[in-house]
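User: For a benchmark we're assembling, each entry needs the component sequences followed by a predicted structure for the full assembly. Here are entry 17's components. Please fill in the structure.
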Amino acid sequence: MNGVVIATIITISSVGIIAAIILYWASQKFKVFEDPRIDEVEDALPSANCGGCGFPGCRPFAEACVKADDFEDLYCPVGGNETMMAVAKVLGKKVSEKAKMVAVMKCNGATQFRKKHTEYDGALNCTIQHNLYGGETACQYGCLGLGECVDACGFDAMYMDPETELPVIIEDMCTACGACVEACPKDIIELRPVGKKSKRIFVSCVSHEKAGPSKKACSVACIGCGLCFKECKYDAIKIENVLAYIDPIKCVLCRKCVVVCPTSAIWEVNFPARKVKPTIEKKTKLTEIKEIDLIKTAKENSKKDNKTE
Amino acid sequence: MLKTFAKGGIHPPENKFSADKKVERLPIPKKVSVPVSQHIGAPSKVIVKKGDIVKTGQLIAEQSGFVSANIHSPVSGKVFKIDLVTDTSGYRHQAIIINVEGDEWDEKIDRSEDLKRDFDFSSEQIIKKIQQAGIVGLGGATFPSHIKLMPPKDTKAEILIINGVECEPYLTSDHRLMLEKGEEILVGIQILMKALRVEKASIGIENNKQDAIYNLKKLVKNYKNIDIVSLKVQYPQGGEKQLIKAITGREVSSGALPIVVGAVVHNVGTAYAVYEAVQKNKALIERVVTITGKSVTKPGNYLVRFGTPIKDLIDAAGGLPEDTGKIIGGGPMMGKALNTTDIPIAKGTSGILILPKEESKRREVKPCIRCAKCIEVCPMGLEPYLLMTLAEKAMHERSEKEDVMDCIECGSCSYTCPSDRPLLDYIRLGKTQVGAMRRAKSMK
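Assistant: Structure for entry 17:
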């Protein structure tokens, strides 16, 4: 009886010792050296794994940070400058501050401004509808309202407004990861700098349609009339393909373009209320001026065309 | 036993109301808008300008790339403007708008109705004529025909297959053409055979078009090496790969072109257009369009000039019925709902189908019950339920491995699904995403 117990103890212990020796040898032989700083950097990151930095997740981004010589192309939009400072501190490198961004919705075509002429009853997915046709309204550039961007948002920073049938971006929650920008088949959402005291001015329209059909399809569309371009003294507005674009870097937030826009396509966000709001009468006047201007420019253009021919 | 393809297939109700209606000529409208993108590939380049006087059959937009086609004026008159017009794609694209004045034809065109059997052109001359006439596949895919006639150097065409299947329910334009222009089609086939340098041609026709089969069998006796094959009534018999399998028994492998098995497929409508282009110098400016639907008072087949708004065609068929739910461009299986009646008829419009309200609404989407009916009917042997889920979850690499690109978008899966799931919609989404992914990879 004793003999069996002793034999068992000896066999099992020797198996254990041999296995330990093999494992020790293997761990030395196939050792993978991993920079301990990767873990430290990863700890400093927000662990959202959203992919906003362009890498598949936070760890690959941390690896890239450790490898990189400078942080020119590396930026975590979720953590912002603070996180990047922390990362730089871990790695002993310098980092330049970048402007904080936020997503803005560049379609203002709520149901009351943009009448529907067809009814879509297919699969509830923006890209599918986009592949099928221009959308339920006459504007083929505008929001389709099926909320693919909302589904793409990993930070609960978006919701669909049932009244306007447009997505709404909650500014404080938005991390500018860019998931919604990629999800939108119509390229309506843009990442713009947050701006001083979160004040922003932008054109809330992406329609490249000419003035006539544009206005017909949506009463708040940018018709490319050029009034804002003429009003801006800072050269911040350019009109390309019948659509105005406000350069966020050049813009000094004077709000003059907002007043002159005949279709209220230019939006101001987080500004204090104006002392005298532009009245409806003023707007109609401006529309008239715009129309006269349009006729003039059209005439000039046709003259130019004739000359060149 | 009638020939058919190997896998899957369905048999929806045929509803061919306009099968016995002779092809009539639709009056030329006052204004036509001719889209410059009526084919697969690059949009044509406009070569006329505002105020130009054009004649019927005159070139107005020329081919602008390898895969592209010429476009000719379908009417005579004055170019009113070049503007954006909603076309069958559902988007506003460039189109040439012409105000019609009289009907003056280009001098080179032979407008007589007599049959011209003999031709003496070399293969290259024929292909050039077809290219100049702007002929595209008239079955609906609108792929420029001349490219199909120039097989890559390492392949050789052995058989020309003519698609007279018309497996889509409701549509009858090809059927009527085979009945009324049988001889012209046969001459067109001979021209295509000469161009491809093949010795053999087969015309595949579904067995529900007995009169067309009888008519062509009677006429074909005078022509060598053309045979008529009657096929089982089964959708999608007219799919290119399905038709090759049914007629030759050869299977085109995944991602390959039909030419690898030595087959070239053209539609009967295309064969007729080839006859007109080569023998009569007439460019592709009109086509037979079926207007049909359960509540349409006068369903029929009309010879329509391109650029005519579908409104005119609907008026000719007795106006829009009160219970209209959807207007579909093409057949009920593969066609697409149109958003206005101003859309011009283009090279790919084989029919206009008006669906009543109760049939047009999609039913509520219910969960997948794993019945595998979609797999059973898929003529390409794919798993539609899986491809849909993959597209929904954006797992595009996996979808590529599951051969999503082989889908021919016939819609059999969506038709058969007892849970009314939008299978094809999501598979199409998967196809576009995989396509974009492949393009991005090749760019790198």
